[in-house]
Amino acid sequence: MICPKCGSVDKSIPTPGLTKRGQGRKLGKCKECSASIWAMPTTKLSEHSQLETVEQGEEREELLAGLYVKHVGADEHGKTNEIDIDRVIYKDGEKHCYLEIKERSNSLNAYKMTQFPYAKIETGQRLMDEENLPVYIVLKFTDCWARLTINATREYEKGSQPFAPRYRQYQQFRQRQVPVKLDVEKDLEILKLRDLCLDEY
Ligand SMILES: [Zn+2]
Which residues hold their Cβ within 5 A of ligand 1, which is an ion? Predict the structure, then answer.
């Protein structure tokens, strides 16, 4: 398990590969900082229409991006023209970094491997190449904020390939569905930012 407060990994208690609904539980306490460590699965919102959920999701990402900007001591954030890495952060009037921010409804320790579209890595690596700026993917879990700093040369592990596309126009869409898998114990940096985070369930 990995501590959502200090990031220390305790190998004596494994992070579950999968935590099913109804199986949420406390895994233990961190040996370094004594924070409680929970495996709590994803919860789905069902009471809103899909459109409302999308709009609320965008507003929520705006809010989260604003908190992140404050945390890193930057000035503001804006939209990029990229689908996969959709924010740019400015500091002192200059571009400071690129950012994609995603909120998860599960705790950090619910799933050992966390996934998102591989296209985010490809776009991130291209932006690093073109602009020579760092690119981050920030994942806001229920109990912590975590960050992946995209490495320009690393080959990230891809999940199972989608079925080979029959029509060329679907190729790009299909490619966006290939997942990349990250190990929450090894690949993510736990941020000191704790706004909107739970300490206990
Ligand atoms: Zn800790």
Answer: 3, 5-6, 8, 30, 32-33, 35
Structural domains in the chain, CATH included, are: 48-190 (3.40.1350.10)
Residues 130-143 have a mean pLDDT of 97
Distance 26 CA to ligand 1 centre (A): 14
d(CA 132, CA 94): 13
Residues 144, 104: Cα–Cα separation, whole Å = 10
- Amino acid in the structure at residue 131: E
The DSSP bridge partners found for residue 179 are: 117
- Summarised one tens digit per residue, pLDDT across range 62-98 is 999 999 999 999 999 999 999 999 999 999 999 999 9
The answer to whether the predicted template modeling score (pTM) of the entire model surpasses 0.85 is yes
